[in-house]
Write a structure and sequence with these properties.
Strand content of chain A: under 5%
Strand order of the largest sheet of chain A: 1-2
Largest sheet of chain B: 2 strands, antiparallel
Largest interface: A-B, 62 and 74 residues
Number of strands of chain B: 2
Oligomer: heterodimer
Shape of chain A: globular
Chain lengths: ~500, ~170
């Protein structure tokens, strides 16, 4: 492992990697700072650029967008109480209150420092833990893999929204979409309706851009949103004393965010809410939370950024994307010929470590770029949507086309966009559908292999040889139910 | 008194779509999934290609029916949403422009189709400053085209005459 780490460390020290990461960070902050525009949208649209770069350049570029965008989302949350993402909702509670008190610069600085701290610590944890977890996963056979994939889908369904029934329906819809094309076991055609373009299945990229980016743009168009009046960046910078006073809270939130990041499906919203609630519960002055408390900003930002690194653990070891952003990263890995799973560490261990090490370097660059560019990004809150939206759409179409050079992909992009906006109107979350679509083929493959292994004696096989897989399968609905109950409490009350 | 029965909400229509999809796919599974490949009369795989889809579609049908039943027994309040009728009209125009963009990109080339689409979108969203629209629709596609084809070395669809012009311009 240490050899891979050293080799990866050396591979990460490339000028083009740093250059593209800086570009990604800048782009991410820029998009995140625009109200109505999200990191997810930026990543989905800029994903195709990564395909034409070396993996050690392209994937850190996307990670830069991810990290920059999460922080960028806190800028409109703090300045105009307009959180671009769910993760920034907790930040806006105290952040906007601080802005009203004329302390927006302190809030933005606190958001930056706590984000960088949380992210860096969780990335180091990921580097230390990912290899032992991959070694453990290598012991898995098809029954265990099927059980873990099923458990992941249940967790994602339980935590993606308030109604797990709807999430399960969307997940099954995603699984159905994954059947379109050729059967992964027997190689026969399924659900192609005789259309030649569907023989190779539904391409992931138009689906990702279509269901994640297009509905968000369409939503801005449909609401005919006008940007709020910008609050100017006022007040003094954060002092070291103020940062030190919140340090304990930042550490606590980092631990919470790291723990949540490992579990597929929970993500930044839950982490931010839990971090914020824990800080409030532990505080000797909880009544000041929501009234402009710097600790509140620190707690939410450290927790939601600490999720970033550990989400790579299930993604890289099992190929399970924990949320919609890691689903996009999975697309980037696959397009680069790096198929996530335990074998990835045997075949491309140094490349994986190079990407993980680049994540740590990205945080240091993030600190510098963020510190000096906060005033610039703060001005972006007022950019006209009539200029931005046509550019976003043009990027989306160019991105969807270049991967396969097939005009059918453009129609699929529009089709998935329409589907996404209808699903949004019907209050169905598209995230479980994408997860079902991605995890469908490996799940079916593992299922088929498991059936073959039983040799017609399923009960005997499972009870004598694969008890672990049985236990995971039994535990899946119980864990799903408990997580759903917990999510209800966190999202409704914030505790 | 609370009204019972199936309300005409987007939620109910979406659930009905899922029910219809599951029922039709299950009924016509024989023609939607090709027969498994056989070797000496025996299947090459442990499970039939339709087995996993049948399990998934059956679960989809059951869950969609349960959701529909919950709707009938406890109908949600009809919510026009934040968009309203005007919002949906704007959405329809937006998707109309995107469909036009998708259909024209290959026959007209990236530059012309992008110029038309960006100009239409910018106007639709409320920009009435002609010079801004002109710069946006003429400048941005050219910059993206050059960045994609010259820096990233990927191809975007373009008319032969324009491709020839660009090639001559850059190659001298």
């Amino acid at each position: 492992m240490f050899d891979y780490f050293l080799e990866g460390f050396g591979m990460a020290l490339r000028l083009d990697t740093f250059g593209m990461m800086a570009l990604g960070l800048f782009g991410g902050m820029l998009v995140g700072a625009l109200p109505g525009f999200t990191t997810l949208m930026a990543m989905a649209i800029l994903l195709p650029i990564s395909f034409f770069l070396d993996p050690i350049v392209g994937i850190p570029f996307l990670l830069g967008i991810y990290k920059g965008g999460i922080f960028g989302g806190s800028i409109p949350a703090i300045l105009v109480s307009m959180p671009g993402t769910g993760a920034a909702v907790a930040t806006s509670r105290d952040g906007y209150a601080l802005t009203k008190k004329g302390k927006s610069r302190k809030a933005l600085d606190m958001a930056l420092f706590s984000s960088v701290f949380g992210d860096t610590m969780s990335d180091i944890f990921t580097i230390l833990m990912i290899f032992p977890i991959a070694l453990l996963v290598m012991q898995f056979g098809p029954p265990e893999l099927f059980a873990v994939l099923l458990l992941s889908l249940v967790i994602i369904a339980a935590t993606s929204g308030s109604n797990p029934l709807k999430a399960l329906i969307m997940m099954l819809l995603g699984l159905w979409l994954s059947f379109v094309g050729t059967d992964p076991l027997g190689g026969v055609e399924r659900f192609t309706f005789g259309i030649f373009d569907l023989k190779s299945g539904i391409p992931l990229l138009p689906m990702l851009i279509g269901v994640f980016a297009i509905p968000e743009v369409a939503s801005v168009v449909m609401k005919n949103e006008r940007t709020k009046q910008l609050a100017s960046v006022l007040g003094e910078r954060l002092s070291f004393k103020e940062f030190r006073a919140s340090f304990r809270t930042i550490c606590r939130s980092t631990v919470i965010g790291t723990g949540i990041g490992i579990i597929p499906g929970l993500g930044q919203v839950v982490a931010a809410m839990m971090g914020y609630s824990a800080a409030k519960n532990a505080s000797s002055h909880p009544e000041t939370f929501g009234e402009g408390e710097l600790e509140g900003v620190a707690a939410a930002e450290a927790a939601n950024n600490a999720v970033n690194g550990p989400t790579m653990v299930p993604l890289l070891t099992l190929g399970i994307p924990g949320d919609n952003v890691t689903a996009i990263l999975l697309g980037a890995f696959v397009a680069q010929g790096l198929r996530p799973g335990p074998q990835l560490f045997e075949e491309q261990g140094a490349t994986v470590f190079a990407i993980l090490v680049a994540m740590v370097f990205a945080n240091l660059m993030f600190l510098v770029i963020g510190y000096f560019s906060i005033p610039i990004f703060s001005r972006l809150v007022t950019i006209k949507v009539s200029i931005l939206i046509p550019l976003v759409i043009m990027f989306a179409f160019a991105g969807a086309y270049v991967f396969r050079s097939d005009s059918v992909d453009l129609l699929m992009l529009v089709g998935f966009g329409i589907f996404g906006i209808i699903a949004k109107a019907a209050k169905f979350d598209v995230m479980p559908m994408v997860m079902g679509f991605i995890l469908g083929p490996p799940m079916e493959y593992a299922f088929g292999q498991t059936v073959a292994m039983t040799n017609g004696e399923a009960v005997n096989f499972f009870l004598t040889e694969r008890l672990g897989a049985v236990l995971v399968l039994i535990a899946a609905p119980v864990i799903g139910y408990l997580l759903w109950r917990r999510m209800q409490t966190v999202t409704v009350t914030g505790h | 008194m609370k009204k019972t029965g199936l309300q005409k909400t987007p939620e109910a229509f979406f659930t009905l779509f899922c029910v219809a999809l599951a029922v039709l796919s299950l009924v016509f599974i024989g023609s939607l999934v090709a027969a498994p490949k056989l070797l000496f009369g025996r299947s090459l795989t442990a499970i039939a290609p339709s087995l996993f889809p049948v399990i998934v579609l059956s679960l989809l049908l059951v869950l969609a029916l349960v959701l529909l039943l919950l709707h009938v027994r406890n109908p949600p309040a009809i919510d026009e949403g934040p968009n309203g009728l005007e919002g949906w009209r704007r959405g329809a125009v937006f998707f109309g422009i995107m469909t036009l963009y998708a259909l024209t990109m290959v026959p007209l080339g990236f530059l012309i189709s992008s110029a038309i689409a960006t100009a239409l979108l910018s106007w639709m969203i409320g920009n009435r400053v002609i010079w801004q629209i002109a710069i946006l629709s003429l400048g941005a596609p050219v910059l993206l085209y050059l960045a994609a084809t010259r820096l990233l070395a990927v191809s975007l669809p373009e008319l032969n005459v324009i491709e020839l012009f660009v090639a001559r311009f850059f190659n001298g």
